[in-house]
């Protein structure tokens, strides 16, 4: 599978840029999310007195059945969400490298920028700070803001769009998981798969075997900063050409 060959096309209408956090704004191969997975297993093991193997089985079952492990724990066991989130996000962020090129790319990109995550705002803000991307995003829309309804549930996207006045038809969504992009596509967003490394997630493994992109994914990139830089450059060039051909510009040139 190759990236979309016409990377600059299809973003002229975009006014809001929406980014997943984990394995999207930082590369998956730093294995930060593996730390979170380990902490989730430990939380379940300690809370229910089961082995780590059984805890990981429960974690995966809740994730695939309810969208997130937290959703399953809340629905079936009334686990306080903040207790779980604080525990699983108590991790070492030193594996995440600063991303100055991504910061410059975001600076050059016109429009509003958001982080839309199934994690907590506290975790997102710490990762954003570690990446050196402070003050680049208008807001972090986290699992609390979504009323604990996770992606890929349509209600989470509708709540995000309603809260921030974002129209799907004028937004682009960047995510590492195809099933999250399926819902983004369904609400009218331009979709970009960020394939920046593999984990043991079945969807990441499946991507490697694709020969072409599914219909709900418009673009794919394995280099987010470069991809955004190209979009920003194309937008700037289009605006320059539009200015040069406008009636006012033509009058000034005569």
How is this structure best summarized?
By secondary structure, the protein is α/β, with parallel strands linked by helices.
Architecture overview:
- The protein has helices spanning 32-48, 52-66, 69-77, 81-88, 100-108, 121-131, 154-164, 178-186, 202-207, 224-245, 247-253, and strands at residues 16-19, 112-116, 139-141, 171-175, 190-194, 219-221.
- Residues 1-5 and 249-254 have low confidence and may be disordered.
- The protein folds into two domains: 16-26 and 98-244, HAD superfamily/HAD-like (Rossmann fold), CATH 3.40.50; 32-88, DNA polymerase, domain 1, CATH 1.10.150.
- A six-stranded parallel sheet has the order 3-2-1-4-5-6, sandwiched between helices.
- With 254 residues, it is an alpha/beta fold.
- Helix content is 49%, strand content 10%.
CATH 2nd-level architecture of the largest domain = 3-Layer(aba) Sandwich
Q: How far from one another are the termini? A: 50 Å
Helix content: 40-55%
CATH class of the largest domain: Alpha Beta
Please state the average pLDDT score.
91
Give the spatial strand order of the biggest sheet: 3-2-1-4-5-6
Q: How much strand content do the residues show?
A: 5-15%
Structural class: alpha/beta
Low-confidence runs: 1-5, 249-254
Round the Cα radius of gyration to an integer and report it.
Answer: 20 Å
Overall form: globular
What count of structural domains? 2
Major β-sheet, in short?
6 strands, parallel
Instruction: Write down the CATH topology of the largest domain.
Output: Rossmann fold
Please, how many helices? 11
User: Can you tell me the CATH superfamily of the largest domain?
Assistant: HAD superfamily/HAD-like
Secondary-structure element order, N to C: EHHHHHEHEHEHEHEHH
Quantity of strands, as a count: 6
